[in-house]
Amino acid sequence: SSDLFADDPSQPAQLRLSSEAVLLKGFALPDAEALLNDIAEITQRAPFRHMVTPGGKSMSVATTSCGDLGWVSDSRGYRYSRTDPQSDLPWPATPARWLDLAARAVQVSGLSSSGAPDACLINRYVPGARLSLHQDRNERDFGAPIISISLGLPAIFLWGGIQRADRTRTIPLEHGDVLLWGGVDRLRFHGVRPVAQGVASARDCRFNITMRKAD
Ligand code: MD3
Ligand code: FE
After folding, report:
1. pLDDT at position 11
2. Are 209 and 98 in contact (CB under 8 A)?
3. Which of 188, 125, 175 is nearest to 149 (CA)?
C-alpha cells in the first residue's frame, strides 16, 4: 500500500489497500463528535439490538439502521427491509452530514460510484464483541462502493480474499477512520477481531457505520 500524501502533513493519510479499496485515516475526525450524537439520536427511535443469524445464533455485535433500507437478520435469512421489524416503522432518516461525508470520502478516494447510499447499518461493539468472516452480498447494486466509518474503541479488521479460505490481512481501524471499497474488492471476505477493552477514561465501545447503495 502507498501513502499518496506522504509529503503533505496537512492531508490525512490515504492508503490504497488494493485496486478498489481505500483507507482514509482520520478522515471523519472533524465530524466524529457530531456523528456520535447522531447515533445517540437515531438509537432513541431505532434501538441497538442483537440480530439472530439464520443459523440461530445471536450476534455479539448489536445493530440498527437508518435510511430507506435497513439490514435485518432472522431465522429466514439476511435481507434489507424498509421498516424496523421491532416497531414496524420506517427507519430514521440518514443525517445529511452522513451523506455529505460519504460523498466527500468517495470523491477523495477517486472510486467510481453509481449513486448515493440508501442503507446505513450501524454496528456497536462492546469489548469482546466480534464479527466473524463473511461477505456482503445482499445488496442489489454493486456499482457503488461501501463507505465505513469507525468511531470509539479501535479494532483489528480482517481483510480476506474472494474465497473464505484465502489468507487474511489485519488492518487496525481507529476512531475517525473511513474505509471505502467497491468493484472487484466488494465481495472479499472480511471480519472484525474481538474488540479489546479501552484504557480508563476512554470510550467504552466501538461503533461502525456502513453506508451502502442496496437497492
Ligand atoms: C466488505 N462491518 O457491517 S466495515 C458489516 O467494522 C461489516 O463493523 C465491519 O463488515 C465493521 O457488514 C467492517 C469495513 C469493511 C472493510 C472492507 C471490506 C467491509 C468490507 C471489504 C470487502 C467487503
Ligand atoms: Fe460486512
Report:
1. 65
2. yes
3. 175
* Ligand 1 environment, Cβ below 6 A: 121, 123, 131, 136, 146, 148, 159, 179, 181, 185, 188, 190, 192, 208, 210
Phi, psi of 104 (to 5 degrees): -65, -40
Q: Give the span between the Cα atoms of 56 and 81, in whole angstroms.
A: 19
C-alpha cell recorded at residue 167: 489468507
The SS3 of residue 96 is: helix
pTM of this structure: 0.92
**Strand, helix or coil at 201?**
coil
pLDDT value at 59 more than 90? yes
Please name which ligand lies nearest the alpha carbon of 155.
1
For a pocket test of ligand 1, which of 39, 53, 124, 136 has the largest count of ligand atoms closer than 8 A to its C-beta? 136
Rounded to the nearest 10 degrees, the angle between the axes of helix 96-109 and helix 32-45 is 130
Which pLDDT tens digit goes with each residue over 143-171? 889 999 999 999 999 999 999 999 999 99
For the chain, the residue count is 215
Q: Give the phi and the psi of residue 38 in degrees, each rounded to 5.
A: -60, -45
**CA dihedral for 25, 118, 96, 51, sign (positive or negative):** negative
For residue 185, what is the DSSP state?
G
Which stretch of DSSP H or E encloses residue 44?
helix 32-45
What pLDDT band is residue 1 in, cutting at 50, 70 and 90?
A: very low
Burial status of residue 154 (CB atoms within 10 A of its CB: 0-12, 13-18, 19 or more)? middle
